[in-house]
Amino acid sequence: MVQPKTMGALLAEHPIFQGFDPEATEFLGGCASNHHFAFDEFLFRADQPAERFYLIRTGDVALELDMTGRKRLVIHTIHPGQIVGASWLLPPYRWRFDARALGDVRAFGIDATCLRNKCDANPDFGYAVFKRFLPLVAERLLATRMQLLDLYAPPVEVGAKLQA
Amino acid sequence: MPRSMAAPVWELGMEPVVYQVTGRHQELVDTVTLQMTPVDGPAMSFLPGQFTMMGLPGIGEIPVSISGSPNDGGPLTQTIRAVGKVSAAIAGLGVGDRLLMRGPFGEPWPVEEAVGRHLLIIAGGLGLAPVRPIVYWALANRGRLAGVELLYGARGPDYIPYGAQLLGWLASDRMTGSLIVDRHSDEWAGPVGPVTELIGRHATVDPAKTVAMVCGPEIMMRFVIQALEARGFADSDIWVSMERNMKCALGWCGHCQLGPVFVCRDGPVFRVDHVRNLMTQSEL
Ligand SMILES: Cc1cc2nc3c(=O)[nH]c(=O)nc-3n(C[C@H](O)[C@H](O)[C@H](O)COP(=O)(O)OP(=O)(O)OC[C@H]3O[C@@H](n4cnc5c(N)ncnc54)[C@H](O)[C@@H]3O)c2cc1C
Ligand code: FES
Fold it and tell me: Is residue A109 in a domain?
């Protein structure tokens, strides 16, 4: 009989954990669970405790802000193979943005408290986890900086407007 | 002997030809695409990546890439964003108006390098104009290429030139690609983020079998080069198109000089390993 894959084995197939030590992935699997979100459903909301972050398997997610009195502002979109949420890493462990499903989304959820406890109890594991997550955080920081640079703005902010 | 000293000036593109505007399309609020034909004789032939000096007597002359198809022998097509005196005057021309044209100038995109390989085109902002002839060429030569992919980053949904054509290309089964915008607006349902995000996600392309051609603001190109390198691309497989102020476009005046190279004559298209150290330099 074919044995169902362990959560650790499933995590090992996700791009984020490819090449990660198999024993560590199995250990991490103890904090992971499967999740499904329908279109428009929130994975998490801004200012709520950052209890669980997600590794996207299928579907797209928008990181956005609810601009009171205006429509929602999407800051960044996240796609299969990527991770949603970094605020679980550092105090005060609260989400800064909303994360909303842009379609049917399947994801692995990682219980942040469980993971932090494992990292504290096993510093080698914790170091490996942080080495895996730090580049992702750095990548997000660079992406945000690039967006802020407004690279494609006309040399003169509002170039001459032309009559059609 | 350098090319610039081998022939008399009138053979070298110093003498302008009079062109007439035959078509005008408003791409964006500050950007138009003009179609132009010479008042006498056939339109110039050109290679993808080349540019012309477009001029108006008494106003000035500016370098502008050719953004039309190199295959069809039709009118000359160029896309101009109004940023200053000369570009605004040219972008303001209407059908029937005349202007002066010199060229074509510059080293083209090395499209033949992509034969038998995957061609990855990455553009940002108005950098789509100089790579558009590559797409025309690639679609006409599709059978000789392993694949064609276009990744395009724009400021926002309202800043995407050639919109309908672009969507048609991306929806066709002859090429693949994605659009991304830095800034979201309500009518946009696509990805939001910098163009480098698309490079990370398109992990199927084998860098060893791919040639990348990149065009956009220089800072964007630097980030794109780093992202391509992180994906395993060699500098020798990445090409960029650089912009510098120009006057003669013939390698004479030094206006476009960047270290040892003249962008007008040795470029604007360069292989990254040849200009790596020059890309952070401003004009001399
Ligand atoms: C090889 C090449 C190809 C080009 N292709 C195109 C094209 O297809 N379409 C197009 O619209 N423009 C293109 N340009 C840029 C175009 O030449 C300039 O926008 C134009 O020279 C500006 O002249 P101006 O008199 O209108 O404005 P200016 O008064 O000279 O400048 C107005 C503002 O634009 C800035 N500026 C000028 N030139 C550039 C530049 N090259 N890059 C960034 N900022 C600049 C100036 O710093 C100033 O802030 C190209 C330039 C080069 C070198
Ligand atoms: S523009 Fe004169 S040397 Fe290049």
Answer: yes
Judged by a CB distance cut-off of 8 A, whether residue A152 touches chain B is yes
Identify whether the C-beta of residue A35 lies closer than 8 Å to the C-beta of residue A29.
no
Task: Output B143 or B14, whichever has higher pLDDT.
Answer: B143
Q: Does ipTM surpass 0.95 in this model?
A: no
Closest ligand to the CA of B215: 1
**Each residue of B177-220: pLDDT tens digit?**
999 999 888 788 889 999 998 987 765 678 999 999 999 998 89
Q: Quote the CA–CA distance of B23 and B34 in Å, as a whole number.
A: 6
Pocket of ligand 2 (CB under 6 A): B 246-249, 251-256, 262, 264
| CB pair distance less than 8 Å for B184 and A158 | no
Domain range enclosing B180: 111-241
In a domain, B171, yes or no: yes
Give the CATH number of the domain where residue B186 resides. 3.40.50.80
Q: What's the domain range around A77?
A: 32-150
Is the pLDDT assigned to residue B5 strictly greater than 60?
no
Q: How many distinct structural domains can be found in chain B?
A: 2
- What is the predicted pLDDT for the residue at B248? 85
Atom nearest to B263 CA in ligand 2: 4
Same domain assignment for residues B137 and B116: yes
Q: Does residue B119 share a domain with residue B88? A: no
Residue B226 neighbours by CB under 8 Å, 6+ apart:
B196
Residue position matching structure tokens 């009518």? B187
Which of B32, B92, B182 shows the shortest C-beta gap to A150?
Answer: B182
Cα(B83) to ligand 1 centroid in Å equals: 7
B231 interaction partners in chain A (CB closer than 8 Å): none
Asked if pLDDT for residue A3 goes beyond 60, the answer is yes
C-alpha distance from A81 to closest chain B C-alpha (Å): 8
Q: Evaluate whether residue A155 is within a structural domain.
A: no
Torsion over CA: B202, B206, B207, B211 (sign) = negative
Query: End of a domain among B41, B71, B105?
Result: B105
Q: In this structure, are B80 and B97 located in the same domain?
A: yes
Q: What are phi and psi of B224, to 5 degrees?
A: -65, -40
CA separation, residue B211 to residues B112, B141, B149, B225 (Å): 10, 15, 11, 12
B77 ligand 1 Cβ < 6 A? no
Q: Is a pLDDT exceeding 70 seen at residue B284?
A: no
Report which of residues B279 and A160 the model is more confident about. B279
Does the beta carbon of A79 lie under 8 angstroms from any beta carbon of chain B?
yes
